[in-house]
Amino acid sequence: MENPYLRQIEARIVEKKYMNGKYYLKTNKTIFYPNLAGGQPGDKGTINGIEVLETYEDGEDIIHVLKENVHSDRVKMSIDWNTRFDYMQQHSGQHLLSSSFYKLFNGETIGFYIGKDYVYIDVNIPKISKKDIEKIELFANKIIFSNFMIKSYIVGKEDVNKLPVRKDPKVNSNIRIVEIDEIDFSPCCGTHVRNTGEIGIIKIRKVEPYKGNIRVEFVCGYRALRDYCWKSEYIQDISHLLSSKDKDVKAKVEKLYLQKEKLEKENRELREKIYRYEASNLINTAKVENQISFIIHKFTDRDIKEIQSIARIISSYDSTVSILGVENKDKSQFIVTRSNNIDINIKGILENISKDKDIKGGGNAHLIQGSCNKPDLDNILNAFYYKIVENLNP
Question: Are residues 173 and 201 in the same domain?
Answer without folding.
Answer: yes
